[in-house]
Amino acid sequence: MAPPSDLPEAARRRLAEGSFSSGLSVADFAACLSMGLEPLGLVQGFCAMQWSAYGGGLLGGVMAQPTVASGGYSEVYQCPHGFVTGEHRAWGQNYEQTWVESAWATGFASALSRMVEEATALGAHGVVGVVDTETPLAEAGVAEFHLRGTAVRVEGAPTHKGEPWTTFLAGQRLAKVFEAGYAPLSAVATVSSVRVWANCVTEYALEGTGGVFGGAGQVAEVDQVVRAHGAARDLARARVRTQLHGDALHGADLLATTREHGPGDLEIQVRLKGNRVRRVAPFSPLPVPQLTVALS
Amino acid sequence: MTSPTPEALDLKAVVRRAVAALDGGPPDTYPTTSDLSIDEELALHSIGWEPVELVSGVSIVSIPLGWWNWGQGEITAAAEAHRHAFANAVARLHREAARAGGHGVVGVRVESAVRPTHVEVALVGSAVRPVGATARPEAEVFTSDLSGRDFTLLSLAGWETVGLAVGASFVFAPRRSVGAVLGQQTQNVELTNFTEAMYAARETAMTRMQDAALGLRGTGVVGVSIAEGPMSFASHAVGFVAIGTVVRPGPAGHQRVAPIPVVPLDDAFVAFDARTLE
Prior knowledge:
heterodimer; A: alpha+beta; Translation Initiation Factor IF3; 5-stranded antiparallel β-sheet; 6 helices; 27% helix; 34% strand; B: alpha+beta; elongated
């Protein structure tokens, strides 16, 4: 019996039509056939998410100790100068924007599970060649998550018991992953988001000035921002680890972006995605590679 | 397609077995993470190396105001900030790699930017080690921006990868006198102040990179990439940055590699990419 599904009626009718569709290139399609992966359908999942602009509360003002309690990584940077002026950034803070991260995680996971649901409805063993896009909508803090891939059945294999596996890989690269003794489990992705409110020292360093002491600054590492970058990367990797459940991450892609909202107000986002794969056969020793030069 | 080698794998059977094996539990090992492609991973494996962990190192170092627009000779604060930023980022990368049990980091993606008031450097790569090897002290970890394939090829040729060498220099092109500007306005004329500044920056940066290579006890630098030109934010400053991987011959010296010439018979084709539909 088919599992309960909330797929649109039209989608179920289309999937049951019998002709297959696939997002694979012809070369990847051919590689899939040689692996015994029979394409069943181009499956997709969508999710539009909005996240709150300030999930953690507002700063208490420049002179007061900041109060953003995000429930995640957070560090406070105090001014070493004592009272200077009302505009002096006496406090700075790095904090994890957990609400952004959880909205992102929900959006990606929902789109992924909707895609997998379509694959399940097709009786697929897995989904190969997954492509994901996260497109910001016109409104700030709104993004559309779209995942698509080609549902496949493994020729001659018994009906799949669990959920279909998913992978960003397809074609010869996937064939080599199998040959290397891995089996794909899941496309994984995560985002970490760290906001930096510079304190006076960080602000002066970013501006290149000596601040209250006047004159030019010094060549020195901008500790607060560097720590925020480190934290954002550590968080992304730690979170992906929790999705691996003891398996390996193959073909990872780490993308870090920094947005400057204003002087001394930075948002660092790190997106890490890759393929959760399991070693199912030992890595057989490979011969020393033959070196070739193509005469073309 | 049949393969000429008798021990060739039955790919369909491999896939069937792999998928069936998923019903068992995950392995009881610490999971590896890597950004290597499967080709790079196989290439490394063929010389007995394996990836252990995706590692990164970041540094941002400030440049004091007032260095870019007036003065003469080298903008030493910018060069110093550049050197600090790379050294700190590499040190963090090595720390992470050593902690994960890696002996080196390959395929390092170098992202760096020189801004008016700071230099940013971000490095990401995969820590690797000889299969099953024990951890190595941080000071002995190496870094390379070469791909897994290039690392394999160097190793087959008997060369060791020892680290990343960076040299940077930023130099003022002295302003011409008002008289010179006016006098040269209607002529085709070489701006020798800029040409000379470029040469000065080039020499200093290349010397720094080569000195860094010697400091790592290497014999040379391969795969040098160069970023040079006028600084977009300062009208009279030029910069030159050179980055490459330091190598030296291994204990057995250079091994001659004799590649087999092959004539590929396939036509060049343009692969379809689903992303082009976006």
